[in-house]
């Protein structure tokens, strides 16, 4: 079953309609409908292989859907792929970092690649170093940084061109608990100026850091809900039932 989405406001920033993708002869994402509003952090939750990365890659414009559409501010991404570059900041599952560059060199390189002129690039790099708390490591080689700092560099590169939509594939993956908490704070701080869509297979991470959770299983969106404090136990039961393919009771989708 695919969950219709009726929470986002009348003009969502991101609108997925019947989004599907076949890979190696198998439909790994099927008929996903989802909307995301400005100022919202939505967590796409699912077990390994559920289709999270494939969905995010389609939203980021690096993988074309087999059918369905991705609309950003009403414009179809695949009618005009340059929309993706301008309006989306994307942290892939494996961030394309250059270990031999310093943090500042790498961010400047990314800013120039996005088409920012010299002075704009300088301003954007300084802004994101500050926002992502990278000041202490700006002259360090990326290859020598901890995983937590490397993920922050990955987020900083996604923000350089000030896109309205930020797409983060497993931003907390491999982080220790302190780094994970700092990452959550950083993601939540992005809500002031961006909509954020992130994937995770960690339920606690999704619950603590997101306004809304959508559960993906076997390529289908099974449930979307607003996160309420103190609902961990209910959420765990729901997730377990979905992961074991047990039929769900009727419940309004959030
Ligand atoms: N290039 C590909 N060719 C064939 N099958 C693929 C390809 N990429 C992904 N798949 C398959 O598609 C399904 C969904 O993969 P995807 O990476 O989107 O899942 P995921 O939810 O992100 O998983 P994980 O949490 O492990 O990253 C999996 O069964 C995967 O094996």
UniProtKB/TrEMBL annotation:
<dbReference type="GO" id="GO:0005524">
    <property type="term" value="F:ATP binding"/>
</dbReference>
<keyword id="KW-0067">ATP-binding</keyword>
<dbReference type="InterPro" id="IPR003593">
    <property type="entry name" value="AAA+_ATPase"/>
</dbReference>
<keyword id="KW-0547">Nucleotide-binding</keyword>
<keyword id="KW-0813">Transport</keyword>
<protein>
    <submittedName>
        <fullName>ABC transporter ATP-binding protein</fullName>
    </submittedName>
</protein>
<dbReference type="InterPro" id="IPR027417">
    <property type="entry name" value="P-loop_NTPase"/>
</dbReference>
<dbReference type="InterPro" id="IPR003439">
    <property type="entry name" value="ABC_transporter-like_ATP-bd"/>
</dbReference>
<dbReference type="GO" id="GO:0016887">
    <property type="term" value="F:ATP hydrolysis activity"/>
</dbReference>
<feature type="domain" description="ABC transporter">
    <location>
        <begin position="14"/>
        <end position="243"/>
    </location>
</feature>
<dbReference type="Pfam" id="PF00005">
    <property type="entry name" value="ABC_tran"/>
</dbReference>
<comment type="similarity">
    <text>Belongs to the ABC transporter superfamily.</text>
</comment>
